[in-house]
Automatic annotation (TrEMBL):
UniProt xrefs under InterPro entries: AMP-binding_CS, AMP-dep_synth/lig_dom, ANL_N_sf
GO molecular function: ATP binding; long-chain fatty acid-CoA ligase activity
Signal peptide: none
Protein's name in the database: AMP-dependent synthetase/ligase domain-containing protein
Keywords, comma-separated and alphabetical: ATP-binding, Ligase, Nucleotide-binding
Pathway: Lipid metabolism; fatty acid metabolism
One cellular component (GO) term of this entry: endoplasmic reticulum
Key word Nucleotide-binding present: yes
UniProt lineage: Eukaryota, Viridiplantae, Streptophyta, Embryophyta, Tracheophyta
Domain of life (superkingdom): Eukaryota
Organism: Gossypium davidsonii
Amino acid sequence: MSIQSLLLQTEVTTVICGNKELKKLVNISGQLDTVTRVICMDDEFPSSANSRWTISSFADVKSVGRASPVDADLPLSADVAVIMYTSGSTGLPKGVMMTHGNVLATVSAVMTIVPGLGSKDVYLAYLPLAHILELAAENLIPAVGGIIGYGTPLTLTDTSNKIKRGTKGDATVLSPTVMAAVPAILDRVRDGVRKKVDAKGGLAKKLFDLAYSRRLSAINGSWFGAWGLEKFLWDFLVFKKVRAVLGGRIRFLLSGGAPLSADTQRFINICLGAPIGQGYGLTETCAGATFSEVDDTSIGRVGSPLPCSFVKLVDWPEGGYLISDSPMPRGEIVVGGPSVTLGYFKNEEKTKEVYKVDERGMRWFYTGDVGQFHADGCLEIIDRKKDIVKLQHGEYVSLGKVEAALSISPYVDNIMLHADPFHSYCVALVVASQHAVEDWASKQGVAFTDFAELCEKEETIKEVLSSLVQIGKKARLEKFEIPAKIKLLSTPWTPESGLVTAALKIKREAIRKAFSEDLAKLYT
């Protein structure tokens, strides 16, 4: 859905934007019937951009406010605060109506979970504010008197794509203490650390590998000597440098928005020496649902219900998930409580489909995700109804689960698994990691003129596929879940291309359409 469609559907009258966005608005101004006023955050802008609009700078707005102060018109808890559009990763975006009460329910719940949040905390904001995880975080930090610094995913670390040579990344400059992250960002941090370690080689690599294995043994409970004095030693010799990647002061990380692979969770946890709180929630639940405890070192789970949320499972017989399953109840995850939003803007049919009110007046949202509850009350996401495809011989494949497992390959920058009900095997589109693939090629003596050519070479495809097969077996994937054929892509998927969301989740339908010919060839 385009920005034009969103503005028309919501009948926006006032737009607040930057100079860059204003130029885009001017190009579609003829179709924006309801817009009458634009406030530009930049001081310099084309004031004659549109004769129908009143265009002001933010400085002008502040001056008017000082000259003509008015009493605040405070909202009620039930008033709509935000219409936030879903990512559209599985279809057209839908406008979720969030009340002030919804947002505050999640914020107040998280305040009881994250230890010691206060005025000394510094938060690095780099996710889009149109992402519910970021909206909740940016309401939470001012509530506790903390500091917010703003960055971008492409300037996050010293080695990020958009960092000029000789300059520092956002995290290095700000030295945050808390961060929210999506798995794609944490995967990049992990890959960046591994890249540096591999490049150094020799004693440095051996020290890192030894320190990592000892700490992993300690977490798994098989070597207690890696705590105490030895932990201090490894922190000083090895992990202090790794922690500098995110500024050196991180004490808590929250991961949400998509499943975090066990490998990345453990890697970040060990190398940064800070707990990762895996959270689960959706735009429709205002990010509220579950949150892991700070001292929970288990992997693959998303914690127990937040104080603002009720979470239950319901049977999904078609997928083979029942609450009577043993050893754990399984089923579709349903979330209730004060964080559950009003529904979809101007979409009553879809609202009635996934929002239900029970006989006690409790409002529930049917997530479409499949989970299981552990004996200690922690939830684990095991499938997604829309991501499950039945193959030719009746086997079910969970696309998201397989993608999360295979994404840890050093050759993979991004991946989309594709399953066709008329075939007995899966295929995959793989966006290749340029550094890793070119490094392999130089070591193997594979000649190439550019990266695109290298991705087309048969030996390159064979090497990447072999890596996926090995990782798939290690992750205990079934043979039919591991892609039998792959297409290597040299161009990254970006939000600008429309193939991933702003939070870097893949847009399955958009990718499927864009690469329909390549997918068809993989099945021939």
